[in-house]
Amino acid sequence: MSTSIKKPLPSSIDTSKLKTEFHQELHNIIGWWSTHMVDEKNGGFFGRMDGYGRLYPEADKGVILNTRLLWTYSAVARATGDAFHHQMARRAYAYFCEYFWDDLEGGVFWTVDYRGNPADTQKQVYAQAFAIYALSEYFALTQKRAALGQAEELFWLIEKYSFDRQKNGYLSAFARDWSPMDDIRLSEKDANEAKIMNTHLHILEAYTNFYRVHPFAALREALENITGLILDRFYLPETGSLQIYFDEDWTPKGHDISFGHNVEASWLLWEAAEALGSAEALHKVRLACLHLAEAVLLSAVDSDGAILYEACPLGLKDTDKHWWPQAEAVVGFWNAWEMTGEDRYAEASANCWSFIKTFLLDKEEGEWHWRTGRCGEPILSEDKAGPWKAPYHNGRMCLEMGRRLS
Questions:
Q1: Edge-to-edge strands of the sheet including 321-322?
Q2: Short-list 255, 406, 405, 274, CA closest to 331
């Protein structure tokens, strides 16, 4: 990392203890998935377990879950050197190639059924980006040229079909043959808009990881462009937040504030600038990264250290404490401390981790609850594992913090 620590950590933070805790939690998470979610009958991994621990062996299998599993096992295997983690990464890659890869039209399917038959063949650009993210990590682990070739093929498909050459930005979704669709929502919770923050943020993430292992001119140009695009279009300097939705002509739609995405962007943008390695890129993103982190610190951190979920111009909109924003806050606040040396960021990171340990970890069944209420009571109505619940946010938090604490 090119960031430098400005001064020692607050005396209240025991880095040795934190490092041990993150190391242990990473093994807890990976152990849970390896024990509970491996589908020995139909291959790959099961598609869903609900919040009460009920497994659904015939649930559809989503590409987001499977690419996040591929990324996680690959990243963990790189960090641990463990042969079993390597084996699980190979398992995830083999299933991905056999069932999610569209040999006919290119790209990856959204879902397959439990037997591996295509169920939803739409081409969500968000999913193509996560496949690049996972494939580049698998290549970093194995040096398997086929995985690198697949990542590059997906890059060119995104640039060919999704990139708006007239108005800039990336369009959200397409039919199987890459033709336009009417319903391009990423999920049932999302607005049906052409250009969305979530997709752009994860294209940024994917292109950053891909660029680390396979830098080439067109990829660098695209990474520079999307970094600038997030700063120029999505980042709102007046609030320190990200605009979530735009139409195709860049007309803003809605004014909700996603605290988790804001703090996640605060470190993913910095990561992209570091990968690009230019003083200009680092200077351009620094103020925005710190503003995003500070705005979350001031507006979203509750008295117990957790960050709240969502707000609107009138105030807080959703005060539940979802698993993934907490994981991103631990990394995002720590990254802000690394950039500034300001105690408040390191303390916020450590406090959020304390909340996770106390309220989000499922101490009886393992892994993390999807969310708690504002007072920390677990809410079990959403999945323990499923299309949107994978060991990516929390596993990555453990990996990032272990690396940074070293």
A1: 321-322, 371-372, 378-379
A2: 405
Q: How far apart are CA 169 and CA 225, in angstroms?
A: 9
**DSSP per-residue codes, 218-235:** HHHHHHHHHHHHIIIIIE
39 SS3 class: coil
The answer as to CATH 1.10.530.10 being correct for domain 15-405 is: no
Count of Cβ atoms closer than 10 Å to residue 96 Cβ: 23
> pLDDT tens digits for 220-250?
999 999 999 999 999 999 999 999 999 999 9
45 in helix, strand or coil? Answer: strand
User: Cα separation of 252 and 255, whole Å?
Assistant: 8
Q: Is the dihedral of CA 44, 47, 49, 55 positive or negative?
A: negative
d(C-alpha 192, C-alpha 173), whole Å: 10
Q: List, for residues 304-350, the tens digit of each pLDDT value.
A: 999 999 999 999 999 999 999 999 999 999 999 999 999 999 999 99
What gap in Å lies between CA 373 and CA 354, rounded to an integer?
A: 16
Number of Cβ within 10 Å of residue 222's Cβ equals 20
Cα 204 to the center of its chain, rounded Å: 11
- Per DSSP, the residues of 122-179 read -EEHHHHHHHHHHHHHHHHHH--HHHHHHHHHHHHHIIIIIB-TTT-SB--EE-TTS-
Query: Is the CB of residue 116 less than 8 Å from the CB of residue 102?
Result: no
C-alpha torsion 63→223→103→142, nearest 10: -80
CA angle 326, 328, 334 (to 5 degrees): 105
185: left (phi over 0), alpha (psi -120 to 50) or beta: beta
